[in-house]
């Protein structure tokens, strides 16, 4: 669906399509434990977040050089542009690469190279969000922030992702305080598999401005009231929630109830190479499965630009919002 939109919850490593994985494996002499792309695709049946993460981290072995990261990001941006994305705030997981010997500079400069020419090449403005892996230590997160310092001009925010349950946001209090002192914005995954309490902690202890997922806030009416009154954006990922079994089927996703409750919902693709669709496909899917009408889809698109970190460029935000209003559904 070509409705103009911002994508705010997208892991660049989660855009690694099987074809590119095999091409990079060949180039870099990495042997994958799958015969071909078809066999690899059969592994994309997940029971929960962890079963996905195991494959997601394993496949990253093919990403080694600056060119690899630039190619990965460029391929995503081309697909996103074809689905109406005008602005993308892109997550990356530096520790997943530094832990296997790829320097953080290789990752950031490779991604940065694709991102800096994105507006010209794809018509998409971009930002980069550096995520800490919450199943690693707080010290490792601090070391990662320190190692990223020569490249901070390329990074606008920090985030928190990976295995949620058992790794509450408060574990990362110190690194978020350090990121704040460096002028970085803050988001965190919370309430995907973890309890509503993690959403509260992300707001109160880490000071995040957006919640990634936030699905489980619906179990806690008081929290919903707070998210509504403070207009905290939620970056929801409905196709991801189905594939990782947070909801049984898309038809039962609480997105309509969340919108009706007044939450500032956005719709995103999370890891589109693994979950069956990019963000335009996701808009189409929620239209079909949940019956969201055109004005509700327009609201989701409007919300995406409202929730974007575009405060330094309100003129651009206004331009994107006017494109949403002007969009004529086929
Ligand atoms: N859906 C997700 N939740 C947590 N960490 C992730 N890393 C990539 N995708 C993720
Ligand atoms: Zn995510």
Give the CATH superfamily. Metal-dependent hydrolases
Shape: globular
Main sheet: strand order: 1-2-3-4-5-6-7-8
Number of E strands: 8
- In the predicted model, the low-confidence regions spanning at least 5 consecutive residues are none
Mean pLDDT value? 98
CATH fold topology? TIM Barrel
H and E order: EHHHHEHHHEHEHEHEHEHHEHHHH
CATH class: Alpha Beta
Which ligands are bound? adenine, zinc ion
First-residue to last-residue Cα separation: 10 Å
**Rg from alpha-carbon coordinates:** 18 Å
Instruction: Domain count, please report it.
Output: 1
**How would a crystallographer describe the biggest sheet?**
8 strands, parallel
- Assign the structural class, choosing from mainly alpha, mainly beta, alpha/beta, alpha+beta, or little secondary structure: alpha/beta
Total of helices: 17
Instruction: Report the helical percentage.
Output: 40-55%
What's the CATH architecture? Alpha-Beta Barrel
Give the helices and strands, then pairings.
Elements: E1 5-7, H1 18-28, H2 37-41, H3 49-59, H4 66-81, E2 85-92, H5 94-98, H6 104-116, H7 118-122, E3 125-133, H8 138-148, E4 157-161, H9 173-181, E5 185-190, H10 196-204, E6 210-213, H11 221-229, E7 233-236, H12 238-243, H13 255-260, E8 264-267, H14 272-275, H15 279-290, H16 294-307, H17 314-326
Parallel strand pairs: 1-2, 2-3, 3-4, 4-5, 5-6, 6-7, 7-8
Helix pairs in contact: 4-6, 8-9, 16-17
This protein binds adenine (ADE) and zinc ion (ZN).
Sum up the structure in keywords.
binds zinc ion; 8-stranded parallel beta sheet; globular; 330 residues; binds adenine; alpha/beta; 8 strands; TIM Barrel
